[in-house]
Structure formats: C-alpha cells, structure tokens
Amino acid sequence: MKSLNITALNILDLDAQSAELPNLGPIISEALETKGYIVLRNCKIDVDDIPIAHELILKTTELIGEPISHDAHNSIVWDIKSNSSVNNGVVTYSEHSHEAQLHTDSQYSLSPEEAFGLLTLKKAKCGGGESFLLSMENILAELRALPEGDRLERVLRENDYPFIVPNVFKKSSDELEFNFGPIISDGRIRFRVDTLEKALLARPDLCTIEQVEAYEILKDIILNSSATLSFFLEERDLIFINNLTMLHGRSQFTDSNRHLLRVRFNLK
Ligand SMILES: [Fe+2]
C-alpha cells in the first residue's frame, strides 16, 4: 500500500462565510473529474461549533453539486460517529467503528450519489481511522492484466449483482431488501463486500457461478492492490470524493469521540 502524499490545498480562508471563494468550485470539480478526490486542509472553523461546521460543508458542496438527503428524515448533513446502539443486523459503515473495507457509498441504491464530502471535526486519537482510496482506473488496469481479464470484466459489466439494503435505509423493518446493478459500468463502479455477500448468503440463486467467480477475483484485486493510497484525515480537513470512480475505506478505530460530517451530492 502506498503512503499517500495527498494533493491538499491549504485553504486558510475557507470559512462558512467565504465558501464562495473565487475559482474554488472549478478547482474542486476538476479534481473530482481527474484525480477522483481533493482535500481542502485547515478550514477555518471551530470544530465544536457544529452549526457553523454544517454551514461550511453545505456551502462548499453547493459550489459543485446538489446535496442529496440521506434518509426519510431528509437529513442533508449526516454525522459519522460510532453508534453502539445499532450493532444488530445490517448496519452502514457510518454507524460503526470496525474496519470499513474499500467500497463505494450507496452501492445498494438504484442510483448511488455521484460524490460526497467529509469534514473532520474530531480525529480518532487512538491511531485508528486511517483512510484509504483506490481508483477504478487502477482496479481495471489490474483486472485487464489477468489472462482472463477481458472475460471477467464482461461478466462484471453485463450482469446485475444483488446488494442488501442496510437497515437504516430499508422501507420495511421486517423483510430483507435488495437492489441490483452491475459492479462495473461505463465510468463507474459499485462495490462493497458485505452488502453483496450478505445478499448472496440470503439468496445464492441471485448470481450465477460465473458471476461469483468474477466477483471473487475482483475482490482479491481490490483488497490487495498496491495502488491503494492511505492517509489520515486531520481535524478541519474537508475531503471530496468521486463516488463513481473511487473506492474509499477506513481502518478500525476505538476512540468514540471521532466525528465527521458527510454530505452526499450529485455533480452540477
Ligand atoms: Fe463509505
């Protein structure tokens, strides 16, 4: 794994009032299109002033996209904190503190959001919570280098895979819910190990043997890629990630004070 020398902008003047800095929107948009992510470092906020932090991430997001609500309550800014009360059933990564393997967000949704932003208010003090990024470009390069790479890629493109819907996003509390989509399509990837494997465990009939084989090989590439970038998000870092072309993950942490804000959005 590479230690990432992340492309980070030191935006010393970025606060909730000045999120309309000239050229900031185009800089973020271009980074999301070309590199797949951008980190704005040292945002000028008091990390304990939650309303101002909300305003900062929202205003900056609105420069480049249209925020999407996370749930039935229309929450736009979502807290990422470990929540010990939701350790049963299928939970989403924003609710627990275990390792989050490389994945795309909302892979269980029919149309996953195109991008998201994370503002770090409290970093984990335990040494955990390291961030990981891996691009679809690197994944495809490794897949295509395999002797059967072209065939495997076709299987991943031409077949729908099932993803189980996490409890917090389900319409009904009793029944398992699935959504379906190809893992790879033009310019986008959807991937998460546990929502796909839980779906297959419950309904093995939803994939052919050929599909499972292609998925397992792709999973091996993703979880062992030497192209994975690793880094720590620092307090007052605001990162934007392209959710169609980048996988992200994070290591386990034990510090229950870790606190990030997230906004999901589609690009303008
Ligand atoms: Fe995520």
Distance between the termini: 33 Å
Which hetero compounds are present in the coordinates? fe (ii) ion
How many strands in all?
16
The stretches of 5 or more residues where confidence is low (pLDDT under 50) are: 3-7
Looking at the structure, what is the overall shape?
globular
Which strand-content bin applies to the residues?
25-35%
The helix content, as a percent range, equals 25-40%
The major pleated sheet works out as:
7 strands, mixed
Order of helix and strand elements from N to C terminus: EEHEHEEEEEHHEEEEHHEEEE
Roughly how many Å is the radius of gyration? Answer: 18 Å
Structural class: alpha+beta
Mean of all residue-level pLDDT scores: 87
Descriptive overview:
By secondary structure, the chain is α+β, with helices and mostly antiparallel strands. Helix content is 26%, strand content 26%. It has six helices and 16 strands. It has helices spanning 24-34, 50-64, 136-144, 149-158, 193-202, 209-223, and strands at 2-3, 8-10, 37-41, 65-68, 77-80, 100-103, 115-122, 131-135, 161-164, 178-181, 184-185, 188-189, 229-231, 238-242, 246-250, 259-267. Strands 2, 3, 4, 5, 7, 14 and 16 form a seven-stranded mixed β-sheet that branches. A five-stranded mixed β-sheet has the order 1-13-8-15-6. Strand 11 (184-185) and strand 12 (188-189) form a beta hairpin. Helix 3 (136-144) crosses helix 4 and helix 4 packs across helix 6 (209-223). The longest helix has 15 residues, at 50-64. The chain is globular, with a radius of gyration of 18 Å. The chain starts with a strand and ends with a strand. The model is unreliable at 3-7 (pLDDT under 50). The structure holds fe (ii) ion.
